[in-house]
Amino acid sequence: MKYIKPFISEIPWKYSWYYSAMSLFESQSENRQSGEPERCLQANNREFNTLFGYPNNTIKTSKYNVLNFLPLNLFEQFQRLANAYFLILLFLQLIPQISSLAWYTTVIPLMVVLSITAVKDAIDDLKRHQNDNQVNNRSVLVLTNGRMKEDKWMNIQVGDIVKVENNQSVTADMLLLSSSEPYSLTYIETAELDGETNLKVKQAISVTSDMENNLKLLSAFDGEVRCESPNNKLDKFAGILTYKGKNYILDHDKLLLRGCVIRNTDWCYGLVIYTGPDTKLMQNCGKSTFKRTHIDHLMNVLVLWIFLFLGSMCFILAVGHGIWENKKGYYFQNFLPWKEYVSSSVVSAILMFWSYFIILNTVVPISLYVSVEIIRLGNSYYINWDRKMFYAPKNTPAQARTTTLNEELGQVKYVFSDKTGTLTQNIMIFKKCSINGTLYGDVYDKNGQRVEVSEKTEKVDFSYNKLADPKFSFYDKTLVEAVKRGDGRVHLFFLSLSLCHTVMSEEKVEGELVYQAQSPDEGALVTAARNFGFAFRSRTSETITVVEMGETKVYQLLAILDFDNVRKRMSVIVRTPEDRVMLFCKGADTIVCQLLHPSCRSLGDVTMEHLDDFAIEGLRTLMVAYRELDNAFFQAWSKKHSEVCLSLEDRENKISNVSEEIEKDLMLLGATAIEDKLQDGVLETIITLNKAKIKMWTLTGDKQETAVNIAYACNIFEDEMDEIFIVEGKDDETIWQELRSARAKMKPESLLESDPVNSYLTMKPKMPFKIPEEVPNGNYGLVINGYSLAYALEGNLELELLRTACMCKAVICCRMTPLQKAQVVELVKRYKKVVTLAIGDGANDVSMIKAAHIGIGISGQEGMQAMLNSDYAFCQFHYLRRLLLVHGRWSYNRMCKFLSYFFYKNFVFTLVHFWYAFFSGFSAQTVYDTWFITFYNLVYTSLPVLGLSLFDQDVNETWSLRFPELYEPGQHNLYFNKKEFIALETTYWTMISHFFIWGSLGFYFCVLFFLYSDGLCLMFPNVFQFLGVARNILKLPQLWLSLVLSVVLCMLPVIGYQFLKPLFWPVSVDKVIDRIHHCMRHPLPPPIRTKVKHASSRRSAYAFSHKQGFGALITSGKTMKGKPKKSSLLKK
Amino acid sequence: MKRTPQDCPSRLPENTAVKQQQLPACRLQLSATGILSGFFATGVFCLGMGVILILSAKSSMEIEINYTKICASCAKLRENARNFDKECTCSIPFHLTQTMRGNVYMYYKLYGFYQNLHGYLLSRSNSQLLGTDVKDVETCAPFSKSHDGTPIAPCGAIANSLFNDTIILSYKLNSSVHIQVPMLRSGITWWTDKYIKFRNPSSSNLSSAFAGTTKPPSWPKPVYELDENDPGNNGFLNDDFIVWMRTAAFPTFKKLYRRLSRTQHFIEGLPAGNYSFNVSYNFPVTRFQGEKSVVLSTLTWSGGHSLFLGLAYTVTGAMTWLAAFSMMAVHLKLKGKRFSPDDKVKL
């Protein structure tokens, strides 16, 4: 991953409100920016521009250099509690009065831990350095002294004019001056930034575009730009170009951002505005908030508790020492006189406190953080390596982008899912249509029985049409027959589909059309028209070329009345080759119905029936209509329209009013039905997640009916549900009533004052509190729309909402703004002590992905903003099942085992010293020799722990997928919490585990004999003083007998507890494990078959998934002086 | 512009056992019968081991005589450091009812003497004891140098506090004849200590080797005169000194003092009869409420007379059996409940 963070160059309408809402937060970050109030620069005038001290175009993403690496890195590392503690310890050890351990016992582990981290940091930073160097040394053409000269990227300065050629990356944020294309359009691809492969268009203002590639003009260009200071808003830019005494307004459509790649444009010139660190790209990559897991938090709390524990142990021992010195030590002075600085037993006790503080240091887990990081890294790699999460069609493996959240994957309780592109593929398939009252698209067999479409069903043969898209398939032959027959209405229907859209086409090879559509719906419709013989071939700003049944016709494009959220329809007005003026309109049925001519009423009724049928099948529908216009009427309207278009105030409103004047008395042609395909395996995944007691909330921007429909289709809502509550109130009071009545049904007692939650809430606790899980009396679902949600998320209602919603098995929120998505996630996060997971694929999901504990990005159709902001990314929704139930569960179990093991071994090790203090006069004498203390954590015990936590599997993946119930303990955090340290057991003995455990043990003996050997002792008699101990002790039978007895005594109670626990306190998991063992011994029962349910008779809706199209852009060419050299504007 | 998968190499992760978490492994799976039989087997083992250890410990004999109170007058005398040059002996008669067969070892045992204090343990110089540098007393505070600055040899608190009672065991052959039981003072140290860790400084004779050093303050004689009878048992290589320098881990400890020389009357061991210990009382313990005793003991393969390990094994074995039985009972009683018919249907 490069230094790229979210980048959105063109914000579709759908997201614009989100960004305006977000600006609230961003305004704060803006204040952070340098004091530069406004940027001022002049083209081709370096002297002037240097006055402002703008940085050059060098970027630096690396953190360290050779000189500052050591101090900076160490400083960062010592900010960690455990590391800092050890530093303090080291200083304490240097004080001879209290030093109770040799200095190397702390220095060596500390050095090892620090250097592991430092090496990791250094490698990371080295990579960043290389990356930076590579980027900074790329070359680009700069205009100097009237000619183009090649220069390195890093030498580019503000105010330079730069030439970027086709397929080159943009050097810095620059103002587009001119390009090789007509109207100075420039196509850019942002794939490197956000993964979107569709082209985006930028356009220069006319005054600069006239300069074209005339170097004389360009070097004479001395325009002055005043614009806002550098900021991180990708979709906003405001500035003024002053040139030859005139002011021109600049917006972000004229700005080429660093990181884009120029496509389909031979060359373009740009004036550099922001360089290096000031570019929007660099301004956006910065502080990403670190997500911390519950275990992380728990670990910190535990470390604090351990400190307290340590302190109290030291205190007890110090007091003990004081008493001992008073009673015994004082009289023992013949043999061991007090040191001269010890005046009384109290002084001695105070010193002893610190001595013990040093000795008992092993209780504080220094290598804990490093080990945890290694384990998490390992478990993240397992996700990256998983072949079962690799999506071959896109050649994309799953990716753990964050390595710190693994174990939380095993604790998820709430899943917040986007709908479009996540549950559904966002691939639209033209399924059915109703033309002039006839329904097409159903397939009947010879007996007239309707049959299900399957792989085997014979497809319609489109070979008569050379332009047909081979990927398109349709099964109803009657429609083709109607087309071939020359049915006028059918022809008109498809003609309107091929004209009324904002799709752009590309034809690289003759006859191979590639459509660029803003929404997949539109693409599907145009493709359908194309296959049936009405192929949209190309467009200019004034014409649309359509190949109608093999005959090329050019329609003059008179106007596009583009789609927006309120109008829910779009129209085009064209002049046909026969010189008729026609308006074609398509839109949501509810809207179009009202615009129909009264004569269409009966046809409308039939069509509405068909629409009902479509809706039952969960298809997305649009109505298509046309109107023939009187030339004079159109001329008059056109004049009014262009006036309105130029008006400055309230323009959008006025345009929509004018549009309404012409979009009426429409003649109904029919309706289209498009299937929104579910992703593979969605159904099974959701069933599994349900079984794992994971609650599924769908947060979507779509309409309620569509969302509910999809929810049924993928089993989020089940037909067997007791009731689905719908909250659609428009004010506080109604919503409150609705929520209360829903709760009254689900759990009447929760409304009583005696309910524990209620009585708790009435106490009005000021501290942040958590609402416990409330169990309803059945299976319920809740649907709430964005409008009501806006109220429900306020003040008192939010608790009502939360309590009601959390009782439901599934919740659907529709018409959501991206900000609301995040708010909902935040709400659950705030009041519920659970782990939340958000999964989505689009830019509108970014906020929720960031808000949730775990964010998952689907790298799918809608680009990669979501993925770039996510913690985990993969291609298919159904990988979620594997991620949670297999990887998540293992990670959680492993982490818990690891922590228990880790704390266990440290406690055991240290408590021996506490015990021994009572026999050694509390004199801070250690039981072990110093080298053993030094190596214990680092060498002897680290590998077995790591082995356990990297390779252990309590049950294998097949079983954890078959029995989702196994997932539950994680949700309740049963295996590792403050109360319980689970008993240890390695359940999965791989070769590596064996190697680690026995190897460590063997290694221990090797080191032992080495350290206690003659040679070392003779060389350093005062350091290695345990000469011969190993030899003399290990040959005693008592030693081995005690060893065996200790092992037996340690193991038996644990095994017994493990044996009895499921018998006395059975948890559901134990039952499942029982079953698994049972299954292993007996032949496997056939896997649970999931029946794909068919939609029952649910009234559903007419969806309109549509973004604002290229309409404005297409027509914008009209107002400009066109370049005659290329006739087809977008035919590239 | 869209890259086709053929353009770039496949990113399909490798299919190795480690990466796919498919390492062959033996899964630890304990069935109820497995666990229970394991418990029973462990119980049998522990009980058996315990009985063997107890029998073996019983077969050894041990006599301990605490002479702190018996020699109270001497103890009183020693409480005052000024009486260091006054001799004080004390005789403790005792009766041995049974012959102690085999090798008999004589120990002295101290109660409440803290050889494990941190400061005490540090106060020694291993390099001095190695004989390489007699004057290396750096680590020996507070007993590194005498008042006039002469380095002490052997330096340090451990050496200074050397146990210096002399204990002689005599056997009452009949009412009038007492004979001294022959005891060996060699072979009571670890081989590694005697031959590697402790060396006398090399010189023609010992007293010149220790020239320039002085005796520890509590010692009556310098280190090269520790054993008047055996010149080879002097300096740092004195067996009693080496034994003392191997410090005890607990405040109550016994250290090997002498072993029986099996000659004449004592070929079989110590015959039953009347004996007495003649103690030349030098080591003061009453000041710090300590006690002293002398121990005679025979050894077996499993150590001395201590029953601890045997009892621990026996108790563990018994507990294991008890646990195994109760677990079996619980298992049989609750097993039916766990596999209720409903569950089986679900299977």
UniProtKB/TrEMBL annotation, chain A:
Bilayer-crossing regions: 101-119, 301-324, 344-370, 898-919, 931-951, 988-1012, 1039-1060
Reactions catalysed: ATP + H2O + phospholipidSide 1 = ADP + phosphate + phospholipidSide 2
Bilayer topology term: Multi-pass membrane protein
Highest taxon of the lineage: Eukaryota
Record InterPro entries: ATPase_P-typ_cyto_dom_N, ATPase_P-typ_P_site, ATPase_P-typ_TM_dom_sf, ATPase_P-typ_transduc_dom_A_sf, HAD-like_sf, HAD_sf, P-type_ATPase_IV, P-type_ATPase_N
Keywords: ATP-binding, Magnesium, Membrane, Metal-binding, Nucleotide-binding, Translocase, Transmembrane, Transmembrane helix
Compartment(s) of residence: Membrane
EC class (word): translocase
P-type ATPase N-terminal domain: residues covered: 42-107
Pfam families noted in UniProt: Cation_ATPase, PhoLip_ATPase_C, PhoLip_ATPase_N
SUPFAM superfamilies, A to Z: Calcium ATPase, transduction domain A, Calcium ATPase, transmembrane domain M, HAD-like, Metal cation-transporting ATPase, ATP-binding domain N
Reported cofactor(s): Mg(2+)
EC assignment: 7.6.2.1
Domain P-type ATPase C-terminal as annotated: residue spans: 869-982
Record-stated family: Belongs to the cation transport ATPase (P-type) (TC 3.A.3) family. Type IV subfamily.
Entry-linked PANTHER family: PHOSPHOLIPID-TRANSPORTING ATPASE FETA, PROBABLE PHOSPHOLIPID-TRANSPORTING ATPASE
Name under which the protein is recorded: Phospholipid-transporting ATPase
UniProtKB/TrEMBL annotation, chain B:
Source organism superkingdom: Eukaryota
Cited Pfam families: CDC50
Keywords from the named record: Glycoprotein, Membrane, Transmembrane, Transmembrane helix
Annotated localization: Membrane
Residues passing through the membrane, by range: 30-55, 307-330
Family label: Belongs to the CDC50/LEM3 family.
Record protein name field: Cell cycle control protein
Native source organism of the sequence: Equus przewalskii (Przewalski's horse)
Gene: LOC103563538
